[in-house]
């Protein structure tokens, strides 16, 4: 996650520098800087409170529109990062129909507080907690979104070799979560 943070901060730095050339772009980046800064907050309630604001939803859901006055290359690079941030925050801030955090959000919260908490566990063991999502359609949907994204990332990652058993267990968990809420 550290490399990801560095890339995002570098990207924002570039936007602000290039925004000097296009003052309108600089104004836009300053207006939405709170949305970006909150991504790095450790307090999940504060992070999610900012994320769900109308202003931040505009930025995350329509970055091309918000950044329309910036140079095209800035828009393209920023859009890619903002979509990744949006997906991350969507999972981190997911709540059930009662307004309580989904099991996935609780897992992410534990990891934010103590990054080494799951160090000795496999992905499939960690995400067995997702089985608690079955009582909520919203939590099932976000859990499936996350697990399917994780599975895609694992199968496409050429730098790390994930064992077939681990991939099978994630597939089993996806099947379980898909079928648990009817």
UniProtKB/TrEMBL annotation:
- Source organism, top-level taxon: Eukaryota
Q: Where is the signal peptide?
A: 1-19
Sorted UniProt keywords: Signal
Q: What is this protein called?
A: Uncharacterized protein
Question: Lineage of the native species?
Answer: Eukaryota, Fungi, Fungi incertae sedis, Chytridiomycota, Chytridiomycota incertae sedis
């Amino acid at each position: 996650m550290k490399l990801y943070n560095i890339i995002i901060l570098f990207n924002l730095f570039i936007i602000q520098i290039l925004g000097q050339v296009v003052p309108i772009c600089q104004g836009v980046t300053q207006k939405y800087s709170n949305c970006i800064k909150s991504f790095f907050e450790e307090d999940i309630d504060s992070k999610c409170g900012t994320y769900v604001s109308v202003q931040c939803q505009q930025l995350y859901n329509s970055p091309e529109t918000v950044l329309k006055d910036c140079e095209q290359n800035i828009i393209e690079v920023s859009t890619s990062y903002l979509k990744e941030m949006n997906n991350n925050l969507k999972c981190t801030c997911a709540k059930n129909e009662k307004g309580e955090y989904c099991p996935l959000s609780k897992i992410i919260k534990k990891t934010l507080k103590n990054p080494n908490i799951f160090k000795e566990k496999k992905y499939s063991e960690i995400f067995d907690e997702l089985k608690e999502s079955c009582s909520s359609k919203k939590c099932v949907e976000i859990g499936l979104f996350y697990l399917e994204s994780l599975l895609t990332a694992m199968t496409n990652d050429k730098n790390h070799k994930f064992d077939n058993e681990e991939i099978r267990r994630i597939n089993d968990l996806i099947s379980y979560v898909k079928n648990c809420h009817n």
